[in-house]
Amino acid sequence: MTPDQIFSIANPLALLAWVALVLFPRRKIVTDVVIGMAVPALFATAYVAIIAAKWGTGSGSFSSLQGVMMLFTNPWLVLAGWIHYLAFDLLIGRWEVIDAGGRGIPHLAVVPCLLLTFMFGPSGWLLYMILRATVSRGARAPSL
Q: Global pTM?
């Protein structure tokens, strides 16, 4: 498969997972199996396979911004980075839903945070943390 083909599979899969998280936040099959294991495991497997096969095939490093920019001239490594984002943002979204449920925060209040987390990762988490601080009823959320 090419990087473009894998990208064209990963993106819709991530989108479907996010839609499920928004629409079915209280269904354990969604939060625990689909979002908590299956989709992140697929992304992690693809990530590991790409890194194992393609690491060292290009120039660059993590020691400077210029080095990172050089790493991301390789389409395979860009794809690995993208899959990394998809996986971790989805796991953060899952945490937001579970944490909000445990704290009694209405799901509709969490949806904008999820949308922002899906699109802009850390900014969605930040919005959720602000929501959590202002809306939480003081209940302690279950640990993940």
A: 0.87
